[in-house]
């Protein structure tokens, strides 16, 4: 059984990590004159290498559709993303990187690599590898359980339907 203090320590560490991630994102966005909130969508579109719906991007980033839609609009306005209409279903719209968007993500990847290499210059390769493995395990665990209520909060019906409630 996991100690509740260990859980609280994990929550504090996750909060700190989230703040650090936002700071890195803000730093990168400022240095590259990109909308910070759209960096995730840019990287996702680059990785998929094909048009996707805004809904798929929202689901991948685990944000509300309205949030992803606003981020996409800012990226479209910046000329980094284009919206396309499906010829088979004119109601269906997709998003994809423009040539400028591809070039900017290439620059972003280089900026991230330089920044992270500098940040972790004092780490040993095995330390970085272990941290990577732990973060991947955390992400998998959280993703696997994000739609399930904790067992302690699940209500089970244990009464006989014939007995008065």
From TrEMBL:
Keywords: DNA-binding, Transcription, Transcription regulation. One of its GO terms (molecular function) is DNA-binding transcription factor activity. It comes from Sanguibacter biliveldensis. This is MarR family transcriptional regulator. GO terms for biological process: response to stress. PROSITE patterns: HTH_MARR_1, HTH_MARR_2. Residues 7-140 form the HTH marR-type domain. SMART domains: HTH_MARR. InterPro entries: HTH_MarR-typ, MarR/SlyA-like, Tscrpt_reg_MarR-type_CS, WH-like_DNA-bd_sf, WH_DNA-bd_sf.
